[in-house]
Amino acid sequence: MAAGRARRLLGSLWIALLLGQPDPAGAAARSGSQSLLTGSLVRTFTPLYFLVEPTDVLSVRGASVVMNCSAYCETAPKIEWKKDGTFLNLVSDDRRQLLPDGSLLINSVVHSKHNKPDEGYYQCVATVESLGTIVSRTAKLTVAGLPRFSSQPEASSVPKGSSAILNCEVNADLAPFVRWEQDRQPVLLDERVYKLPSGALIVSNATDTDGGLYRCVIESGGTPKYSDEAELKVLPDPEEPQDLMFVRQPSSLTKLTGQSAVFPCVAVGFPVPYIRWTRNEEELITEGSGRFLLLAGGSLEISEVTEQDAGTYTCIADSGNDTIEAQAELTVQVPPEFLKRPANIYAHESMDIVFECEVTGKPTPTVKWVKNGDMVIPSDYFKIIKEHNLQVLGLVKSDEGFYQCIAENDVGNAQAGAQLIILDLDVAIPTLPPTSLTSATNDHLAPATTGPLPSAPRDVVATLVSTRFIRLTWRTPVSDPQGDNLTYSIFYTKEGINRERVENTSRPGETQVMIQNLMPETVYVFRVVAQNKHGPGESSAPLKVATQPEVQLPGPAPNIRASATSPTSVTVTWETPLSGNGEIQNYKLYYMEKGQDTEQDVDVAGLSYTINGLKKYTEYSFRVVAYNKHGPGVSTQDVVVRTLSDVPSAPPQNLTLEVRNSKSIMLHWQPPPAGTHSGQITGYKIRYRKVSRKSDVTESIGGTQLYQLIEGLERGTEYSFRVAALTVNGTGPATDWVSAETFESDLDETRVPEVPSSLHVRPLVTSIVVSWTPPENQNIVVRGYAIGYGIGSPHAQTIKVDYKQRYYTIENLDPSSHYVITLKAFNNVGEGIPLYESAVTRPHSDTSEVDLFVINAPYTPVPDPSPMMPPVGVQASILSHDTIRITWADNSLPKNQKITDARYYTVRWKTNIPANTKYKTANATTLSYLVTGLKPNTLYEFSVMVTKGRRSSTWSMTAHGTTFELVPTSPPKDVTVVSKEGKPRTIIVNWQPPSEANGKITGYIIYYSTDVNAEIHDWVIEPVVGNRLTHQIQELTLDTPYYFKIQARNSKGMGPMSEAVQFRTPKAESSDKMPNDQASGSAGKGSRPVDIGADYKPPLGGSNSPHGSPTSPLDSNMLLVIIVSVGVITIVIVVIVAVFCTRRTTSHQKKKRAACKSVNGSHKYKGNSKDVKPPDLWIHHERLELKPIDKSPDPNPIMTDTPIPRNSQDITPVDNSMDSNIHQRRNSYRGHESEDSMSTLAGRRGMRPKMMMPFDSQPPQQSVRNTPSTDTMPASSSQTCADHQDLESTTGSYLANAQEEDSAQNLPTAHVRPSHPLKSFAVPAVPPAGSAYDPALPSTPLLTQQAPAHPVHSVKTASIGTLGRTRPPMPVVVPSAPDVQETTRMLEDSESNYEPDELTKEMAHLEGLMKDLNAITTA
């Protein structure tokens, strides 16, 4: 019965304690009361708590204040008060007294400027003797100051229906005591008239009754204080709209949860604005909301503020015409609240316990613990864990009492408490709700039963002793030798300390334990107690054990600092270690470059050291280790510092120049080598000057980009540039001067580039080496080259290379395969006309072909396993037309580049064309070499290698240079003269460029005279501008012998004259017989069909012979009679005409000489005003260049391009006898032209659109060194008086030995064969149906024709020229088609043919005459 009653009583007490209420039965036992529980005595928890706690109070001077407090306990607690942490002595205080319920009464609060005895923090303390003490939360008493107005109402007016605000600003603690009066009567507040918390008055929707005198009153006890009066006038409605504006805007607020917040917002204007609110940009609904209320004028009131109400509030005033906004923040603070309160705990002595306390609040509260009213100071046995929890280690009897967790933040404080009861060891701890015991003691919750207890454990020893832990072992008690069901508690304490701690074994039967978290070099006392199901037994004898002392090593040196003192030094400082544990003998300073793995060290005796010889602007890490007699201590943490920056120690690399146009040059470079920057590169300084004026230097500072466009330069001027890198410290060394020359005029990129001037291929087994030269016309921008190749078709693969490149090796090809290769230049407009070539790769078994670079370089030594570095910075400086200086640098030499050993250098060079040109070499022992004996105006490439003993380097990167131009050293070749069909007074002169042009041909001068022995200044001069190879001379005298010479000119001057060529003009202007007219030769490769117009209709009938053989059935006798008759008549006519022509010629030549003077005053220029054509005809001629091949005539009358067909359909099949001739012709011509004259590498054209280029020109501009561009730009300087012939008239292409005139629309180039002068022509016409074609006759390639069905007729021809000399064929292309009328007449004239036998005799006779003439001319 007694046991059951005790259980019920204990349960009811626990319920009362958990609910925080007094025991409903009032039967809770007093402290020390006992009940039987499972046969043992257990003390129960006694409730002690506050019913009422004091709260914050705002009072005024002289008023009375009550601070409420009431506590509950079965034994009436003693109530005391603390003010600002000190107990108040209320016995002798006449103003402050304790009320019966424990509250504090303060009568007549005292408050002045210098005496504020009552203001402060108050705390109620409740104590029950022999039980414990609890303290309440603290409450603040605030006394309002003296009434004072910071602002007073001012007179104002308000339109009817609008809002007004009257200010009355007082200090915040007096605001609740403010009220308003209108005309000395209290103002009644309602929805329309509202007083803000600050004291201001808002009058909204004003009416006439609102007008009057207003004042505010402060009633804080004593005499009321009145403000000044201000009149509010109510005006009638305004007739015009008024601007919208705020008269009061909301301001940010900070409120506690549960309080009210008011955001004032008053706007005025007409129409009267409507006010609405948003929170965090979301519409706030105030109608029907219980907590959000729209007050007078549009102000917002939020009642019972919660945390969720925090945010940004926006007041929006909308008048219909305008909208304005104002924002304010609401910050919500939360007083501390308990999420978990401390719980009552039962425990035994020596146990470890934890009081748990979890709080929340905003701002985050701080927690402190109070035991029986006194602050708990953390120590080795009282610890704050997990921020808020209190841990008590090694309980003793005096630890009993009430523990309170007090949480506090800026806006409040709260307290919660629990009781600790320490039971006797023979009383089991009751099984109650969780008591927050530690894991070391929670095995004691099971109730004990009666029975024998175990004896003391035996042989307790410390088997392992360290600095901070000890391992104990023991044997089982004598009473229980097995000990399988025994658990053990190990009690330990520091020697001399009464507070014991306990550690329990983890499982039954275990006879060892590890005690941790001990202090080094400290004596501890251990004892072990065994426990069975009946309870704990006897304790073992105490065992004293001393922990090991820690090794006496120094700790880390504090305050280690590293600072850079220069670009190569760092000073490191530190302090003596706090835990030195003995005298410091020395320090070791370790340092390491960041990114490296090798650490260096230095011994230091003091507390600082400066390390020198470091790399500039490099990060290093430093650490310090202190040493004493025991050895090295603990290392410091690494500190990282970067050495100071400096100016760069090396110049930028690889400076290259690219001439963009006539006024700008682009510079490119690379940063200085890694490790030489000495800091952060902040920019680059560019210095440049004219080469001609080295003292006038311009500076330009750019950013960190690796390029710079220098603009505003002068045309055709050579500039030198150098670049230096910048850091914050200054400018580093600069590069060497590099020069480039701006263009004379800007390049054109409105059209695609022209066809490259040559293409060469060299097949190997699995690769083909392709080389080329740029287009003839270098006035057009070339951005690069597109190489297409494939088996049978060039469209399988395409590769694009830079515009500077002149070589490319196509690799990974199949052996013994036929590849077609195409080359096109391109720019931003598109791709130009392609150039075709084919090649057959060699078979696998062919070992005869090795790379030419090896074949032609037998001097190359076998490289050593460790070859030398090749020379760098190879530059080619052009000195003259046949001399180039090569300079280079050697990185394996010291910085001064002084050669002190027996090394030597090998320089090799070659031209680009033809591709199989062999290298030439020379040795040098210095860093430069003068290459002489070069060809003028020729692009060479140079490279250098170094040899030292048996070691050699590879070849360096190549440098390119083009020699200067020289005057032509040979005359124009193959000069021929023919009369123009239909115009016997007009002749056509044709020629070929000189073999040794030595530069870009800028023009020709044609000299002609009727007296071959006349002085040269008496000859008539016909200038030819540009590189045309044909010219018309008009208004000559009929039946008169003329002699012609031609002289070529380039930018350097005039070349030698050709031999005189004789030509006799026809006797009469008859179109029936033109014995001196010559046929156009058949075209060779590279020419284009000439468009003669869509209206051309060939005559019907007639036939062609492949060799112009006559087919007319005339009788030979009749032919003889006709010839004799014509001869007699001709002699008579000649005599008559001679007299007439002699007079006419004399007067005509006088006119000519008077019409135009030569440059030196002695040359005679032929001219006639009616023959001069406007420059637009020349412009039109230039514009034809980009039209499709099959639709436009060839715009270029010279065609020095490679004679390769423009497309794959241009060549018709030919027999084997001619195939070799074609191949021979192509190779011999191109090779001769490219190597001797290099006309295809000459620069830009001298003729520009929309102008006539004068004859004289400037020297070519020098190309940038070390780049392969070879631009030359002839410019005009002197005026000429040249006739401009009619470009639409017929011109022809003529050969060296014999010519035929062909009326077909194609004007191809014929091939000369040395077998017979008149049998070397093939008429390029398709025979009509039914005509026989003899395949055995020799033939030449025929170009495809636009109208292949048109029959073409032969005419009788005569060969005039330098007969008897065989020479390689030269392609000549006629610039324009014949006139339609003249072509038709020519075809009609050709219908009269001779019999074969008679014609053969005549031709043999003419051939003999030609031989005689040739002999005379040669002589």
Give a written overview of the molecule:
With 1419 residues, the protein is mostly beta strands. Helices cover 9% and strands 36% of the residues. The model is unreliable at 1-40, 434-448, 849-865, 1071-1114 and 1150-1394 (pLDDT under 50). The protein has seven helices and 90 strands.
| Helix proportion range | under 10%
**Multimeric state:** single chain
The global form is elongated
- What is the end-to-end distance? 165 Å
Whole-number radius of gyration? 59 Å
User: What is the overall pLDDT average?
Assistant: 74
Specify the structural class. mainly beta
Number of helices: 7
Largest beta-sheet details: 6 strands, mixed
Strand content: 35-45%
Number of strands: 90
Uncertain runs are: 1-40, 434-448, 849-865, 1071-1114, 1150-1394
Brief rundown of the structure:
This protein is mainly beta and 1419 residues long.
Structural key phrases:
mainly beta; disordered N terminus; 7 helices; 1419 residues
Write the layout of secondary structure elements.
Blueprint: H1 2-19, E1 34-37, E2 40-43, E3 48-52, E4 57-59, E5 65-67, E6 70-73, E7 78-83, E8 86-87, E9 96-98, E10 104-106, E11 120-128, E12 132-143, E13 149-151, E14 156-159, E15 164-166, E16 169-170, E17 178-182, E18 185-186, E19 193-195, E20 201-203, E21 212-218, E22 225-226, E23 230-235, E24 242-248, E25 253-256, E26 261-263, E27 266-270, E28 274-279, E29 282-283, E30 292-294, E31 300-302, E32 311-318, E33 323-340, E34 345-348, E35 353-355, E36 358-362, E37 366-371, E38 374-375, E39 382-385, E40 389-392, E41 401-409, E42 412-423, E43 458-465, E44 470-475, E45 487-494, E46 501-504, E47 512-515, E48 523-532, E49 535-539, E50 543-546, E51 561-566, E52 569-573, E53 586-593, E54 600-604, E55 608-611, E56 619-628, E57 631-632, E58 639-642, E59 653-659, E60 665-670, E61 683-690, E62 693-702, E63 707-710, E64 718-727, E65 730-734, E66 738-741, E67 756-763, E68 768-775, E69 784-791, E70 797-802, E71 807-810, E72 818-826, E73 835-840, H2 852-855, E74 872-878, E75 884-889, E76 904-911, E77 920-924, E78 928-931, ...
